[in-house]
Amino acid sequence: MPRSLEIQTDSFPIAGTFTISRGTKTSAEVIVCAVGEHGFSGRGECVPYRRYGETMESVGAQIEASRPLIEAGLSRADLQHAMPPGAARNAVDCALWDLEAKQTGTSVAAMLGLAAPHSLTTAFTISLGEPEVMAEHARANAARALLKVKVGTGDDESRIRAVRAAAPDAAIILDANEGWPEDRLAHHLRIAAECGVALVEQPLPAGRDELLADIDRPILVCADESVHHTGDLASLRDRYDAINIKLDKTGGLTEALAMKREAERLDFRIMLGCMVGTSLAMAPAVLLAQDVAFVDLDGPLLLARDREPGLRYAGSLVFPPESALWG
């Protein structure tokens, strides 16, 4: 019996709004692939991202175009050449991992050599807004161990200081989403260092980040939009101290594993990040994130509702997936 492929679109409302330097969204639009074979089915979720030229329609069409190969038994290794990095390949790749786990009775954690995957401290995101609003949100979440604070304007000093005052004990990541003007970069990095920020993510636009090689970086600076797959890493060594691996960028867990190994070889710190999606999208990343420096897998916490069953979150922790969800 040949494999089957099902493609489903879902929309999950966000609790309130989610705002970054590029705009605001009120729902998470996701695509789920289900690959079936011999009575077993594996699932993978992706989040198309317009910043990278993706739409729900284009990603769905990309998966559909690969249907003959997938249904003919395409392997994960061959998938890396059959589809480019991005959301579409991520959904298929993660579905194939899940399918193999279900067929063999061996968890993905065991396939990865993780005898006992453990809970992780994950960041919780504070959306971009006026300083007093961000401070209020930070204060409500001040007991969390790690906050990821969206910034990305020409005047973020007041936001940084307000959030730090509201959450004095939390570790803080700033994510500018390419939004800091070049002439404010040094100033904002200095303020971030003064406020004890642990990491600044993607301060300058991708492709215009060469300035980072020529200035003093008083704190760790992490690439996100500037890094997508393993081939990007070597050119970033003089610009960034850390990289953000997201499965929707790499095109799945298979490439993300290779990227992680190469990033470690090149002495990058690693963040495991996510788009705003459900627990199904986070589950593979939780396993990949077992030994990284920073974990940002709070997508389901930003939603008004998650999938059932979903990942378990408690306080600042996210726990490994149960097989009923994925893997």
TrEMBL record:
Catalytic center residues: K150, K246
Mandelate racemase/muconate lactonizing enzyme C-terminal domain sequence ranges: 131-222
Entry keyword Isomerase: yes
Superkingdom of origin: Bacteria
Residue numbers binding Mg(2+): D175, E201, D224
The entry's keywords: Isomerase, Magnesium, Metal-binding
EC number(s) recorded for this UniProt protein: 5.1.1.-
Cofactor(s) required for function per UniProt: Mg(2+)
Cited Pfam families: MR_MLE_C, MR_MLE_N
InterPro entries per UniProt: DgoD-like (IPR034593), Dipeptide_epimerase (IPR034603), Enolase-like_C_sf (IPR036849), Enolase-like_N (IPR029017), Enolase_C-like (IPR029065), Mandelate_racemase_C (IPR013342), Mandelate_racemase_N_dom (IPR013341)
Gene3D superfamilies recorded: Enolase-like C-terminal domain, Enolase-like, N-terminal domain
The keyword Cytoplasm belongs to this UniProt entry's keyword annotation: no
Cofactor detail note: Binds 1 Mg(2+) ion per subunit.
A GO molecular function held by the record: metal ion binding
First-tier enzyme category under EC: isomerase
NCBIfam families referenced in this protein's UniProt entry, alphabetically: racemase_DgcA
Family: Belongs to the mandelate racemase/muconate lactonizing enzyme family.
Protein name (database record): Dipeptide epimerase
